[in-house]
Amino acid sequence: MEHVRDLTLLPKAHLHLHFTGSMRPSTLLELADKYGVRLPDALTSGEPPKLRATDERGWFRFQRLYDAARSCLREPDDIRRLVREAAEEDVRDGSGWLEIQVDPTSYAPLLGGMIPAVEIILDAVDSASRETGLGMRVVIAANRMKHPLDARTLARLAVRYADRGIVGFGLSNDERRGMARDFDRAFAIAREGGLLAAPHGGELTGPSSVRDCLDDLHAARIGHGVRAAEDPRLLQRLADRQITCEVCPASNVALGVYERPEDVPLRTLFEAGVPMALGADDPLLFGSRLAAQYEIARRHHAFTDQELAELARQSVRGSAAPRDVQEKLLDGIDHWITA
To answer: Residue 81, CB half-sphere, CA atoms under 13 Å: how many?
Structure first.
C-alpha cells in the first residue's frame, strides 16, 4: 500500500478565492456581534448552508447570504483582519501563492470611496504577505449584474494599480445574466494594461459560456470552466491553448452544479490535457478550504500522488506569480513527490 502523503504539505497556488467568502466563520460571528448585525440563521449554525444555485431562487439566496457577510466588513481593520486570516489559512493548506478576488465597489461606500477601498485592500494584502510569507496578489472583478460601463471604470482603476499588486481582471456573479460580449471593452482595457483576463464561465451555464469568455473576452484563465467537459471540441481548444480552468469542486457540489463530488468532471478535464487550478471559491459558505479540494480529487476521483502533484504544478503555471516564485514552488512539488 502506497504511503499517503499529506496534502497540506503539497506546495500549490490558489487562484480562485473570493474576498468576503474567504472569511473564517468565527470572524464573521465576531464582526456581526461588533456591529450588531443580525445574521441569517444559515450563517450562524456552524454548518455550511444548504444552497442550490441552479435555480434562480437558490442563487438569489446564495447572494443574500454573501451580502449579509459582506455587511460585517466596515472598517480598514476588518479588511486587514480578513486578508491576514485568509493568508494564514492558505499557508496552513500548503499554498505558496494566492490571488484573491475582490469587487471593491461593494466596500467603497463604507471605506470612503473607490480609491480608498482599493488602497486599503492592497495595503492589507501587502502586510499579510509580509507577515505570513505567502506570495499574494489581487484580481479585481466586475459584477455581471451591473452596467458594462461600471466594469470599464473598474478595469481602468485596476490597470492604474497594476504595479501595486493587481494582476488580473475578472467577471463574477450570475453568468445567466449579462452577455460576456457586453464586457468586451472592459476586458480590452484590462488586457492592454497588462492584466490577466480571468472571467467566470461554465459554472451555472454550459459550454457556450466558456466559449464566450474565450471569443469575446480573450480569457487567459476561466473561473470554474467545468461545464466545458460537455463539449469535446471545447476541451481540445482549452488544452491546445493551455487555458487554465479554476475548478472548485466543493463549491460545484454545494451550489448544485453537480450532485456529488464524484460527478465533478475532474478526470475528464485532466485527461483531455486542460490545465486546472483547484480553488476553494467561498470557504465561508462551502465549508472547505484549499487542501480539501485536492482531497476530493484523491478520494472521489482516485488521483494518485503523482497526479495530485501535477494538479499542483498546473495551479502554479496558471498563476501570475513571477518566474522565481514559480520555480521555487515547482521544486517544492518535486520534493513532495520524491520525499
So the answer is: 15
DSSP symbols for 169-194: EEEES-TTSS-GGGGHHHHHHHHHTT
- pLDDT at residue 18 above 70? yes
56-111 per-position pLDDT tens digit: 667 778 888 889 999 999 999 999 999 999 999 999 999 999 999 999 998 999 99
0.85 cut: is pTM over it? yes
**Which strands form 135-143's sheet, in the order they lie side by side?**
12-18, 95-102, 135-143, 166-172, 196-201, 221-224, 244-246
Rounded CA gap, 264 and 256, in Å? 11
**pLDDT tens digits, one per residue of 311-332:** 999 999 999 999 999 999 999 9
Q: Contact 291/283 with Cβ under 8 angstroms?
A: no
- Provide the 8-state DSSP code for 281: B
Q: What is the mean pLDDT of residues 206-232?
A: 97
Residue 259 annotated to the active site: no
The single-letter DSSP state of residue 195 is P
Which entry of 203, 262, 295, 327 is annotated as an active-site residue? 203
Residue 319 in contact with residue 277, Cβ under 8 Å? Answer: yes
Cβ neighbours of residue 202 under 8 Å, at least 6 residues apart? 209, 210, 213, 222, 224, 225, 226, 227, 228, 245
Confidence (pLDDT) at 272: 98
Closest by CA position to 53, among listed 255, 263, 287: 255
Q: How many CB atoms lie within 10 A of CB 310?
A: 17
Q: How far apart (Å, rounded) are the C-alpha atoms in residues 112 and 44?
A: 29
Spatial CA neighbour of 222 closest among 231, 232, 230, 212: 212
